[in-house]
Amino acid sequence: MARSTLSRSASAIRYGIARGIFSNEAGLGSASIVHAQAQNKPFAQGLWGMWEVFIDTLVICTMTALVILVTGVLQTGQTGAELTSNAFATGLPGLGGWIVLLSIVLFSYTTMLTWNFYGEKSWEYAFGRRVILPYRIMFIAVLYLGAIGGLTTVWDISDTLNGLMAAPNLIALLLLAGVLVREKTQYLQEQKAALKRQPKDADAAQADDEPPPKEIHGGRP
C-alpha cells in the first residue's frame, strides 16, 4: 500500500514538473533569448521573467485545474485540450468551449512563432545566417509531424527535449550565481540612489518654477 502510494505520488510530481516546465519554460534558458532583446537592465528584465512564470503557472494553470476538478469532467478519461474544453463548456455552457478554442488558437500560434525565434537565433549564433532558411523549412516540417503525431508520443518527445535543455542551463545558472548576485546588488543600489535623489530633484524643479521676486523702486513695486 505504501509503495503504491509513493509510486503514484512520484508519478504525479514527475508529470506536474514536466507540464509546468512545458507551460512556463522555467529553467530551460529559452525565454532569455527573447528577454535579451529588451532595452532594459538585466536584473529588472529578469524580474519580468519571474512575473511571467507566476501568472502562467500559479494563476492560469491553477484556474484551469480547479475548473476541471469542480466540473467533474476528470472522470471522463479525456486528456489535453479536449478535457479542458469539456470542463469549460460544462461550467460555462455555450461560451466556455469558444473561450478555450480561441485561447488554444492564440497559444498555439504564438508558441510556434516564439519557438521558431528561439531556434533560429540559436542556430544563427552557432552556424551563421546561412542556416536560417534551412532551419525554417525544417521547423515547418516538424510542425506538421507534431500536428499529426500521437499525443502521448509528442508529450514524451517534448519532455525529453526540455530535459536536455534544462540540464546544461541549470548547471550554467549555478556557475553564474556570482554574476547574478553582482547584478542584483548593483540594481538595488541604483534604485536606492534614485529614490534618494527624487526629493532633491523635486525641490530643484519647484525652485525653478517659482517666479523671481519683484524689484521695488521708490517704495513702489
In brief:
This protein has 221 residues and is mostly helical.
Q: What does the model show?
A:
The protein contains 8 helices and no strands. It has 221 residues and is an all-alpha fold. Helix 4 (80-91) runs antiparallel to helix 5 (96-127) and helix 5 packs antiparallel against helix 6. The mean pLDDT is 82.
Question: Which keywords apply here?
Answer:
8 helices; 221 residues; mainly alpha; 80% helix
Name the beta content range.
Answer: under 5%
The helix/strand order is HHHHHHHH
> In one word, what is the shape?
globular
Biggest sheet features: none
What is the number of helical segments per DSSP (H or I, 4+ residues)?
8
Computed Rg: 27 Å
Helix content: over 70%
Strand runs, count = 0
- Nearest-integer average pLDDT: 82
Report low-confidence residues grouped into runs of 5 or more: none
What structural class do you assign from the helix and strand content? Answer: mainly alpha
- The N- and C-terminal alpha carbons lie at a distance of 98 Å
